[in-house]
């Protein structure tokens, strides 16, 4: 497989952000200007991140290409859910006294929440850790877990900034929670060991075929 094939995946964030905008072309010009600003604010950081990951990824077979494609789509969806920056469009925004939700007490919400409520934060960054190792972007278990933790901290900081700046206009309802960092990091550990288990069975299967 050609090494350049992987660069076709750069089209994923382009189409992901452009298609919703195209579907809104029948809206008024003021709204579209706001949406173009929103597009640039959100698309450019993700595209830069995707270019870096594509450059670092080792894609030498079709399975790796599938993993890379799924990984980039996952990153776009993750951004949409946890770090998307909306640009407010309203003739008369409603002032609210909303206070940003913040928890810096470890295990507080973990102990108070049901198992089903913890599964989202726990598994949110599991695909990230799996893909980073599967594509050889990172080869060390410790580095992968550390990067997962740093990304989780970054997400929480972005959400805090968004919530703090947007709460006056009732734009955001995201919370910043140290327990999310703990769960995200644990999810990264799970992703690493899923990769190691998956790689073990792949290597074992290849060894058995060579012996035959």
Key structural traits:
mainly alpha; single chain; two-stranded parallel ribbon; flat; 212 residues; 8 helices
Q: What average pLDDT do the residues reach?
A: 85
Number of strands: 2
- Count of alpha/pi helices: 8
Strand order in space, largest sheet: 1-2
| SS-based class | mainly alpha
Shape annotation: flat
Low-confidence blocks of residues: 91-100
Q: What profile does the largest beta sheet have?
A: 2 strands, parallel
Distance between the termini: 26 Å
The H/E string reads HHHEHHHHEH
How much beta, percentage-wise? Answer: under 5%
Helix content: 55-70%
Tell me the Rg in angstroms.
20 Å
Characterization of this structure:
By secondary structure, the protein is mainly α. Helix content is 68%, strand content 3%. The protein has 8 helices and 2 strands; from the N terminus they run αααβααααβα. It has helices at 11-22, 29-56, 62-83, 108-112, 115-123, 126-134, 141-166, 178-211, and strands at residues 101-103, 175-177. A two-stranded parallel ribbon has the order 1-2. The radius of gyration is 20 Å and the shape is flat. It starts with 10 loop residues before the first helix and ends with a helix. Mean pLDDT is 85; it is low at 91-100.
